[in-house]
Amino acid sequence: MSESVISVPGFWRRFVCLLYEALILLAVIFIASFIFHLIFRDPQATYFRPLYQFYLLVVMGYYFIWFWTHGGQTLAMQTWKMRVVTTEYKKLDERKAMIRYLLAVTGILFLGIGFFWAFVDREHQFLHDRLAGTRIVKING
Question: What are residue 76's DSSP bridge partners?
Fold first, then answer.
């Protein structure tokens, strides 16, 4: 990917993309929850809640990792013409995508610090992108 056709997306583009991503993810979680509840019918069981939370974490991870490694764009990113790439502007491999996902989840657990990092970062990248060696770029062409 050549640097001449890409740029850094602005804050509002990224914010609206995150909102759109949340709506799509809500639908994915709804379907995954329906399947889980069909299989495990006893929500009062002691194992139910931690297993359910872990299951949703894996489902969301699979969603993001699959899209990031197959084109670099989730459905929301396709709409808003953004792509996640390595710092060398190359396609993410599964290992790098998994690291990015786990760092993003960790950043969310710490009160969203990973996303707020974009306000102080010189290139407005998220903290998990900095740590994982990835970046979000806007596709101009």
Answer: none
Phi-psi domain of 132 (left: phi exceeds 0; alpha: psi -120 through 50; beta: other): alpha
* HSE-CB for 75 with a 13 A CA cutoff: 10
Cβ-contact 28, 34 below 8 angstroms: no
Contact 66, 97 (CB under 8 A): no
Residue 16's Cβ-side half-sphere holds a number of Cα atoms within 13 Å equal to 9
Element (H, E) at 7: strand 6-7
Q: Which of 68, 65, 86, 81 is nearest to 14 (CA)?
A: 81
Q: How far apart are CA 95 and CA 103, in angstroms?
A: 12
* pLDDT tens per residue, range 80-123: 999 999 999 999 999 999 999 999 999 999 999 998 998 898 88
Question: Alpha carbon 121 to chain centroid distance?
Answer: 19
**Is the confidence at residue 69, as pLDDT, over 60?**
yes
Sheet holding 134-139, edge to edge: 6-7, 134-139, 82-86
- The model's confidence at residue 141, banded by pLDDT at 50, 70 and 90, is low
